[in-house]
Amino acid sequence: MTIMRAAHGACEHRDGTLKPTVALFVTCLVDLFRPSVGFAAIKLIEHAGCRLVVPKGQTCCGQPAFNAGDRADAIAIAKQVIAAFEGYDYVVAPSGSCAATLKKHYPELFADDAEWAPRVEAFSAKVFELVSFLTDVRGVKDVCASLNASVTYHDSCSGLRELGVRQQPRQLLQSVKGLRLKELPESDVCCGFGGTFCVKYPDVSNAIVGKKAKHIASTRADMLLAGDLGCLMNMDGKLKREAIAIEVRHIAEVLAGMTDKPPIGGKL
Amino acid sequence: MQITSPTFKANTVKALADVDLQRALRHVETGFIGKRQKAADALPEFDALRDNAKAIKEHTLQHLDLYIEAYVAKVEASGGKVHFAEDADHARRIFLDIAKRRKAKTVTKGKTMISEEIGLNAFLEEHGITPVETDLGEYIIQLRGEHPSHIIAPAIHVNRDQVEADFRKTHVDLDPQRDLTRPETLLSEAREILRRKYGEADIGVTGANFLIAETGTSVIVTNEGNGDLTQLLGKCHVVLASIEKLMPTLEDTAQILRVLARSATGQEMSVYTTLSTGPKRAEDEDGPDEYHVILLDNGRSNMLGTEFEDMLRCIRCGACMNHCPVYHAVGGHSYGWVYPGPMGAVLTPSLIGVDKAGHLPNASTFCGRCESVCPMRIPLPKMMRHWREKEFESHLQPQAVRTGLNLWAYFARRPKLYRTVVSFAMPLLKLLAGRKRRFRMLPLASGWTKWRDMPAPEGRTFMQAYAQSGHGHGDER
């Protein structure tokens, strides 16, 4: 497998007179496991003509608590996130899952709270998943990166079904020079990660990711991409265990032309 | 039936190792999904019909008492009788009273999940009455002494070879040399056996897809026509139905029929849509002498007005389980009671208690595919989460899970402390992983590393790296 490292072309910044300010919600997994994705997101957001800030008070979106039925902690964490992020024009996360929590589920958490509900609504309206922010909000059509490789793309569930992220990543991938997109069979089927699901029901999760790994291998692509690090770590872990040689990366790394770092989980 | 939901985990391990089951489950993935998609794509107003269907059921549930009252009046006016059953035991006793009065020895049955819910077959056998399932799938699993593993395809877990073996074992009076290698030959053999039973039956039992308040009519949809024969040729027709089957009018019912079969099997309509109103009238040539409806509550009225009310919109199409990756992996029996898949994960805790069915709403990745195909737009993942909230409130989750969650939340709520800890931990983890950049084993993460490697972190956290990268911090707070 030869992958020519992506390189950014001489793309002009979109230079609007009024640059909107984007607060990067980096997500806990990117923060802890793959900072490269955060830096790729910064590059993409700045190239889309935005000013970028990274609010310090961030840890996690609270989804683990929310999905475990622990509403009190979920609400406390949500308030913390809202307070840190609500002052900016946009809040962007390199994850459909975390963005959906901020955008779709925070309003549910505060539905009965007359004081917070309007504040949450205003906050949630400003939240976007990274790739759809670039295309749908900033009108980016071409990312000016190049990568001589065949890639396949997995549609992570939350981004796909809660935020309607489907065409946007394909559109931007097709603008990467030299990149050949090979569609993944059943790309819209869950990879079996599901947050704590994968450790609470490891055997069921394994059956699901096992099927996913077979589909990924069948594409014979050089690289597997997705927009959520949780899914990527799950799929990479299974691919490595099954000794299936394919580089696994977050889509932002390719779109930003930043594939110089070793892939997720290293190489086989 | 015996509830095995508490041992869900063990059930799944067994199911994952069952080669025949795994082969059968491939049919769910490959068959239903494409057919539903094709049917939905062929009908431009499909999504609008879903909105309409949802609105009709929402309205009905809001006025359920009135519609039940109107329905009962109409059934009685047509010469039938409605019996209210509070729970499974009550429903069984009502049925036994009818059967005893009619001195019933044989009962033919169309497909009914309520019969499974009240465990009717075993109960009848205890009382010397022979139940005969007439839906092919139900007939097969009755021969096998099993329960349905899918609400519309009860024998989806059984393969053709197994059916052949069951038929040879049961139909011993037939020629042992006969050819049973094709589905058609199996079908005609079952048909031949079952045709004899309809006329002999003392009672014909069916379920109901809808009960129509406007006319006092019960509606069933089938593809085999067995339901029609069951209810027409039996001398007494007993309908088993739960309270949420009520519909205001025939017109409303017609609307929901347009999404039902498309969502279930991808058909525009099921082969038979059969309406029955009361017993045989004086001028009718055929039909039952008596018509009874056993209207079962069994916990459903407790769902009204709660966060679980939306579940009562369910029309039992099976689309949620047909699209569920967990169902695809482990099949219906793993869920341990009558209703499997996402709809079962929400409904089962309501009906048998979350203490017994707690695993079900947890065994979901929240991928949302079920909700995306539900014709009644039931927010299934949201309601599974509500069950998790109930479990959390009642301290039903395992202690290890609770401790882990509390510890994590403690740090997540304290950004400065969190930073200090992860800034130290992540570089250390990277170091431990070494040049491979992943772990084959990791203490406290065996659930992950049992089947997967664990990718190692890159080293410094993003926040550390960002602070050290010379990026201006802008006006971040």
From TrEMBL, chain B:
GO MF term list: 4 iron, 4 sulfur cluster binding; metal ion binding
Any Gene Ontology biological process: lactate metabolic process
Organism name: Jiella flava
SUPFAM superfamilies linked to this entry: alpha-helical ferredoxin, NagB/RpiA/CoA transferase-like
Domain of life: Bacteria
Keyword Repeat: yes
NCBIfam families, per the entry: LutB/LldF family L-lactate oxidation iron-sulfur protein (TIGR00273)
Protein name: Iron-sulfur cluster-binding protein
Key words of the record: 4Fe-4S, Electron transport, Iron, Iron-sulfur, Metal-binding, Repeat, Transport
InterPro entries: 4Fe4S_Fe-S-bd, 4Fe4S_Fe_S_CS, FTHF_cligase-like_sf, Helical_ferredxn, LUD_dom, LutB/LldF, NagB/RpiA_transferase-like
Entries under Pfam families matching the protein: Fer4_8 (PF13183), LUD_dom (PF02589)
Record's keyword annotation contains Translocase: no
Domain 4Fe-4S ferredoxin-type residues, every copy: 305-335
